[in-house]
């Protein structure tokens, strides 16, 4: 019986590269179709009148900068400063060999990361005066907002700082101890400074989140001159029956958050280059 040694014919079908090209083309096509539908169906006149009304936007200046933006920056800086100090203490307690310190730090982190920030603001504005009759948080609204933001974000900062401290090789501490340094001095002069260089990028992202949560200051009863951007925009939008003030407030937030986000990415890229 004769046998054939002919090779089998090639399998029919598209190559993997061709399939990827078709899928990518379909994705671009869907995107273009959605954009065309949005542009064609949207009522641009109504959007312009209600969201991008230039005459309304001009009337917001300079008050939105003098009060809204300024107060937002003040709330953010004071809240972040308090959160940084408290977060560093909590992080060191979390790494302590003393069990009660570790238990307290773990409990604090879990509670304040688990509760909505809104509840902390309500507690600070209502619970603190009830718990300590006749006493008020120093600084009024500014102090209450800084305290609420600091309590919340200290939990996140503590975990970030703890991770940075644990990233430092233990050999550096052992070398410092062999030179006669105490544990506390080694942490202050060697470990913590290096840890902060490691955690600067994530701390920048935390600062952006804190900036946005500063809008919760309205729950501590701000006055007209103490309004931050969100409260300022919402009040003006209600008064004028137009949402342009909210859009302008959003743009003011972006003027701060976009540079901070860019800074965080640059710092992360620099750290990656330093590890190579």
From TrEMBL:
Q: Where is the ABC transmembrane type-1 domain?
A: 69-264
- Superkingdom classification of source: Bacteria
Q: How does it sit in the membrane?
A: Multi-pass membrane protein
The transmembrane segments are 21-42, 73-93, 114-132, 246-264
What are the UniProt keywords, alphabetically? Answer: Amino-acid transport, Cell membrane, Membrane, Transmembrane, Transmembrane helix, Transport
**Could you tell me where this protein is found in the cell?**
Cell membrane
What protein family is recorded?
A: Belongs to the binding-protein-dependent transport system permease family. HisMQ subfamily.
NCBIfam families recorded? HEQRo_perm_3TM
Q: What is this protein called?
A: Amino acid ABC transporter permease
Name the species this protein comes from: Actinomadura gamaensis
């Amino acid at each position: 019986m004769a046998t054939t040694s002919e090779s089998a014919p090639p399998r029919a079908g598209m190559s993997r590269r061709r399939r990827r090209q078709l899928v990518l083309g379909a994705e671009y096509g869907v995107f273009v179709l959605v954009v065309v539908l949005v542009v064609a169906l949207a009522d641009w006149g109504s959007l312009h009148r209600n969201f991008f009304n230039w005459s309304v936007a001009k009337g917001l200046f300079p008050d939105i900068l003098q009060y809204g933006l300024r107060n937002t920056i003040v709330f953010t800086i004071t809240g972040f400063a308090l959160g940084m100090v408290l977060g560093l203490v909590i992080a060191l307690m979390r790494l302590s060999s003393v069990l009660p310190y570790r238990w307290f730090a773990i409990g604090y982190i879990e509670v304040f990361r688990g509760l909505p920030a809104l509840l902390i603001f309500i507690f600070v504005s209502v619970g603190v005066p009830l718990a300590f009759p006749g006493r008020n948080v120093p600084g009024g609204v500014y102090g209450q907002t800084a305290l609420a933001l600091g309590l919340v974000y200290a939990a996140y900062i503590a975990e970030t700082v703890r991770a940075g401290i644990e990233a430092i090789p233990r050999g550096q501490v052992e070398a410092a101890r062999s030179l006669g340094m105490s544990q506390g001095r080694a942490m202050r002069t060697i470990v913590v400074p290096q840890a902060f260089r490691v955690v600067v990028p994530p701390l920048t992202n935390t600062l952006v989140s804190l900036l946005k949560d500063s809008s919760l200051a309205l729950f501590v009863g701000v006055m007209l001159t103490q309004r931050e951007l969100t409260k300022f925009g919402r009040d003006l939008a209600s008064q004028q029956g137009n949402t342009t003030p909210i859009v302008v407030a959003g743009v003011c937030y972006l003027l701060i958050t976009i540079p901070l986000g860019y800074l965080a990415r640059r710092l992360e890229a620099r750290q990656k280059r330093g590890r190579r």
